[in-house]
Design a protein that fits this description.
single chain; alpha/beta; 5-stranded mixed sheet; two-stranded antiparallel sheet; 37% helix; globular
């Protein structure tokens, strides 16, 4: 008996959640991602922005890079293969990642909770569906699978101290200089936003 699409998506999203838990264990924002082609994983990623000190090392980017190497090793044409590949990620792709997915030709994305600050699949911008012919064809999104779990993992991360955050500088006045209040493009929700985040139904 053929597996239903719902059961298929649930199976792979569980794996993405495991990737997010691994990222949390490394002190990263807990986002996990995998690319599935013909019922096999061809690329995985968990956020690595803290570890690498590179704000672009998001789970989706790492999974795409691994999938590209997989294609090259098998001498398969990336565009054709990616058009038949489904991406699973625990948090809505940010604007940067949504653009990358579209450029690479991914056609289907399943994600957990919304990214209310940098979401590129409807929460802030709709990079996945807007008329943007210069970056390729739109892709389909399915939201809300394991959203509660994704939010819980984010809340757990933001409860603690980030061991990779720079130490605040002390000004001559003796007050702490917290530095510019900026977040890296594509980062997931801030602590306050995560605490009030509601899963997509």
């Amino acid at each position: 008996m053929a597996q239903s699409e719902e059961a298929y998506d649930e199976k792979w999203m569980k794996e993405a959640v495991n990737m997010a838990k691994q990222a949390l264990g490394r002190g990263e924002v807990p986002v996990g991602c995998l690319l599935v082609y013909e019922d096999q994983i061809i690329g995985t990623g968990g956020n690595a922005a803290n570890e690498t000190k590179n704000a672009t090392r998001h789970a989706e980017i790492l999974a795409l890079e691994e999938a590209m190497r997989w294609c090259d090793d098998k001498q398969l044409e990336r565009g054709e293969l990616f058009s038949q590949t489904k991406l699973f990620v625990t948090v809505e792709p940010c604007i940067m990642c949504a653009g990358a997915l579209r450029i690479m030709g991914i056609k289907k994305v399943v994600y957990g909770c919304r990214n209310e600050r940098f979401g590129g699949c409807g929460s802030i911008l709709s990079v996945n569906s807007d008329e943007l012919p210069s970056i390729g064809e739109p892709f389909e999104c399915k939201a809300g699978l394991y959203a509660d779990t994704a939010v819980q993992l984010l809340q757990e991360f933001y409860k603690g101290q980030n061991p990779n955050a720079p130490n605040p500088k002390i000004k001559a006045s003796g007050m702490k200089d917290e530095g510019p209040q900026l977040q890296c493009p594509g980062d997931t929700d801030t602590k306050d936003q995560v605490e009030t985040a509601t899963p997509v139904k």
